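Workshop exercise sheet. Pairs work together: one partner reads the sequence aloud, the other fills in the structure field after running the prediction. Swap roles for the next sheet.
Pair: D.N. / O.F.
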Amino acid sequence: MSTEVQLEGRTIGSEVISREEVPMVRGERWEELHRLAVDEGVTIAELARQFGLDRKTVRRCVREPAWRPYQRPTRAGTRLAAHAAYLRDRAPQVGYSAQILFQELRQHGYPGSYETVKLFVRPLRAAQRSGELTLRRFETPPGQQSQVDWGTATIPFRHQRDVRHVFVLTLGFSRRSYYHVCPNETLPQFLDAHERAFEYFGGHTREHLYDRPRTVCLGTTEGRIVWNATFKAFAEYWSFEPRLCQPYRAQTKGKVESGVKYFKGNFLPGRTFVDDVDLHEQLTEWSVTIADVRIHGTTHERPIDRFAQEHAHLVPTASQPSFRLEARLARIVAEDYLVNVDTNRYSVPFTLIGQTVEVLRRAGQLVIFHRGARIAEHPELHGRHQLHILSEHGPGASARTARRVQSTRPSLPTAKPGLLDVEVRDLALYEALTGHTEIAAPLAIVDPEPSGRSPFDPLSPDPTVSAPALAGVRS
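Structure field:
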């Protein structure tokens, strides 16, 4: 068994590793190591196994009061060694431009190459950028930002274990969190959990930081974020600004990530629950008596005490009705001229296929608008995957309407089909009517029942009208 002796902040054992040689630990991992060791009492050996780090590295992270960015040590004997202090001081002033620094060093008699200067400046620039990210993450002022995330956990109910999804919203300044257990992560659950959090805190922050789930955004197009239309309307309704983590950098919302881990590591172990109601009651009690009053590993204060400072800076929400009841939901009309609301589908006029309409819930009715004009109204369906279609919205309705309009136009009276007589006339009659007088006179018209002919028969010439006159009218 090897013994370890501590000397001037370094650990001496079978192998001596100086502070500069310890592998770089990023700010997010440092905070998590510090929280687990200080708040939850996890041992150095266990942390080293969990994070794949050397014990000396873990011990150094736990003992240091604050995270500091990694700085590459200067190798002794290099041509830059004599200029290292100058470069560290001067680099921030010239924007970490290796070219400018190289030019200035040449004036001081530096005989080395530009590549050497560039390699020296590169870690300085990276440390500066990392420090900016860390500052934005850790030092948000009161009421400025919240971080939102989901967690998944297997819950030990009395009769069986079942999976539940945990919504966590953490206030950036106070680190106070709201936890809500849901059966799934669908958009209605997501928005409802937000409103429950607003009610719990008595308001909300001006910004909310998210990962990139489809309930928030649908990706990017030409560098622009394509927001989920309903979520964007929700954010505008409650007057907060949604912000997204950088792609593949979900750890930048480390505050809420820590909240999810804290829920799994502190609330769940050793508990069983009768049902979801019991789960909710125990979670509420734990939030008030444990989570809110613990000493936070980063702020070294109780979240409930810092919340007293933050509460006055939150955007109040008490007087505002629920988004579900008052806000209009944007929907695109499908090819079957239906719009989807909570899995149920409702018809709109078929001429709006492909266009965006707005749906408003009001007193058990769904009122649908297009460009501010009301176009449809349906009773709200309370089941799932149901249809409510109004016949006048389909293309067949327009045809019926056209027929109805045509049928209302006045028309000439016609004789009953049974009373019509078909007469046979010689073609010479029509030639004479058109002025061809060289043709022989027409044959006599046989009309056995003159009284049975309709006065509106177009083939029956008026005997009082002469042929030349009729020809003039026809022409």
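Discussion prompt: The chain has a mean pLDDT of 78. What would you look at next?
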